[in-house]
């Protein structure tokens, strides 16, 4: 995992989004809170104004202050109230809490309203004056509960925290996704680069090997002709030795032909092939005295492929499986899978080690004593020429399966 | 045992008092009249103080220098979980609500006894037993036993 990429594509963008969200949300919350507080205070002051008029009316009707407070004692939001005369003497008061009337001369006169804290939340205090019908000035001191406002602020804070957690969660998922995509892209780019280099290297080796094969083939042909001439002219007791020499030369020639064939670019002549028919033709060419080859397909599978090359590819796989299997069965299964044809050749043979699996498609690699190691290399080359892919799975002692996927279906 | 006896006495006492009380005009925690009194406990009684509330613990305190008697309203009995004894020294911070009839009354905000401070009201006089926690808070070293 690249630390720099992790910071660049995950941590920094996530942190940026979280900080921006937090900043904007905090500004917005502070603004809304201030506005709501102002609104509530305006409302409470208006209520105090109405209350003042009502109290003036009660006084003109000769109600005592105790009777007046009885009218309002049921008001849950009024924590305390007091009526004062012109000399600031308290005529009467009422409080929901024992002895609690936080009236102080310090507050009176300076402002008409102020807020104090209490264990049951903030209390909005209003001190307001009015003239009653007896032409005397009275003062009303009120304490309103700001509990609802505080509850609203708590709810707002809780909602903000939930939203913040959601933003962080979504941010993590989103930027983790981007980071993974970036990683995947870089990985693919690396793979593509490695493949390109491999192809270039292969091209160079192919050109070199073709040249060598060509240079060897000419003297070999001369040598073959020489052996033919010798066969006719030498005494009979040497003929067996000369024949052996001639056979070895032919063998070398065949090997070179195989090399040359494997290095040549493939020329595909694609046609529509019912897979069933193709398999029938392949199975006709294989002797099944020791091992039974079973075949099944899901629905009617049709290939658009070069018949000769595809036969060769499948034959190579089947031969490989037959050579690796002492007893049991070999299964060939074909099915459609996501707009692709998937063909699996599975045996119950000796299987392969991980090291062998890594090299199984390399040219001239063979796990057998006899064999040039061209078969599976060619199979892969044929499959890839059809824009397909081949993969191998194997477990030692359990068997091996090759899966070809080519476009179609 | 003491607690049980106290409850019986309190019960009898409650039967004797009127069921409702008007709030005396000047009997509230006036932050402008905050004083500090230090003195010796003369006696301890339980009295109803506010309308529709349980009796309060009242301590008669003899001021150390002037020998004046202050009637200190501590808190509802159920709330106060400390034990005072006659003759003990107390330091009380509270609001003076004196009148000719009632004498020198103090509504206590903080009581200090045996190095421990018991907070009964906040700085505006809000009673601690009506707060969100409803438990008396103390600070300082703790001495003496509980009921």
Q: Overview of this structure, please?
A:
The complex is a heterodimer of chains A (409) and B (147). By secondary structure, chain A is of the alpha+beta class. Chain A has eight helices and twelve strands. Chain A has helices at 3-60, 65-72, 147-233, 239-263, 275-284, 307-324, 354-359, 375-385, and strands at 78-84, 90-95, 113-118, 121-131, 137-145, 270-274, 292-297, 302-306, 329-336, 340-347, 389-395, 399-407. In chain A, strands 2-1-5-4-3 form a five-stranded antiparallel beta sheet. Chain A has a five-stranded mixed beta sheet with strand order 7-9-10-12-11, with helices on one face. In chain A, strand 9 and strand 10 form a beta hairpin. Chain A is rod-shaped, with a radius of gyration of 48 Å. Helices cover 10% and strands 37% of the residues of chain B. Mean pLDDT of chain B is 77; it is low at 1-23 and 141-147. The N and C termini of chain B lie close together (9 Å). By secondary structure, chain B is mainly β. Chain A binds chain B through residues 66, 90-95, 97-106, 116, 118-120, and chain B through 22-23, 25-32, 49-50, 53, 73, 76, 107, 121-122, 124-128, 130-133.
Question: Notable features of this structure?
Answer:
heterodimer, A: 409 residues, alpha+beta, Beta-Lactamase, Heat Shock Protein 90, 3 domains, five-stranded antiparallel beta sheet, five-stranded mixed beta sheet, 8 helices, 55% helix, B: 147 residues, mainly beta, OB fold (Dihydrolipoamide Acetyltransferase, E2P), five-stranded mixed barrel, 1 helix, 7 strands, 10% helix, globular, disordered N terminus
